[in-house]
Amino acid sequence: MSSSPAPPRPYLPPNMVIFGPKANCTLELCPVEYSVYGYRPSLAANIAFIALYSLAIGIHTFLGVRWRQWWFMGCMLAGAINAVLGYAGRLLMYKNPFNFVAFMIQIICVTTGPVYYCAAIYITFAMSIKQFSPELSRFDPKFFYYIIIPCDIVSLVLQAAGGGLSTKSSGQSKIGIDLAISGMAFQVITIVVFCGFVADFLIRYFRSGAWEQEKYQTQGHPSRATPKRLGLFFGFMGLAVLLILARCTFRLVELREGYGGKLVKDETLFIWLEGFMILLSVYCLMVGHPGLVFQRSHRAHLQDLSTDTSNDEGLRGKTPRATTVQSLRAEKRTSNR
């Protein structure tokens, strides 16, 4: 049984440019189906995203100032401000889906936002290793500064270059699309590798008895991280990473189809797998804020990481913390007899 023919596309007036810097289409002149997304971005959804990201900017500013977590606050604010600008661009596209400047604003700002959140997470995890049993990590904390973050920057550059080339050619540039796909794929690989490091460290951390050490050290010292705070911190930071990974995977599949594919024209998928996923990760990083567990600012920890090169070997050896963990294990064995 033959399938029914596709309905004809709406009439497009002659001499109209639908996409690019020279686009002259408007809703009054051209059907919305000819726009890059094929729809008018939702007014309600984009206003909601702008409002929620604006609220996130205020909350992260308050938490950052309160706990003096300047680096973390800076990364979160940069990402949230990017998001506000990006969804403002989508609001402009609601008025005119053929507005190329608005398209470029939203595609750049919405796409690059998660890079800042990843930078905040990577550095925070490096601080966590430094704070909690560095001898249990297979890699020095500086590994995340010198390897993981540069990988994220490379992925950003590839995505930006690919996006620029593909938009100039209405999404038909094979080189541009390949660059964008390579950048997004590299970002996904970086996050997956990072997740492996996180899982490995946490498994070793909890199996080592260091969790009991934290319980011991928090007695009479309310300023230190309590077990409950540690659970919230690691749990919500991990959830934020998984949400960002899910979003990047979606965008990778979307990019493979190009700007003429079906996914890029599905606003429902965009709202949930791009907008909601990243917004939720921003709010997860409020609950899993590093201020919950660190007494000092990111700046102090960064200074430590830059000055302890001579102590690298000592970190791998028998540190006082390691001795305490071993003592706790011995106490456990004694009590079980």
Automatic annotation (TrEMBL):
The keyword Transmembrane helix applies. It is a multi-pass membrane protein. Keywords: Membrane, Transmembrane, Transmembrane helix. It comes from the Eukaryota. The keyword Transmembrane helix applies. InterPro entries: RTA1 (IPR007568). GO terms for cellular component: fungal-type vacuole; plasma membrane. It is found in: Membrane. Pfam families: RTA1. The chain crosses the membrane at residues 43-63, 70-88, 100-123, 143-161, 181-203, 230-250, 270-294. Residues 305-337 are annotated as: Disordered. PANTHER family: PROTEIN RTA1-RELATED (PTHR31465), SPHINGOID LONG-CHAIN BASE TRANSPORTER RSB1 (PTHR31465:SF9). This is RTA1 like protein-domain-containing protein. It comes from Schizothecium vesticola.
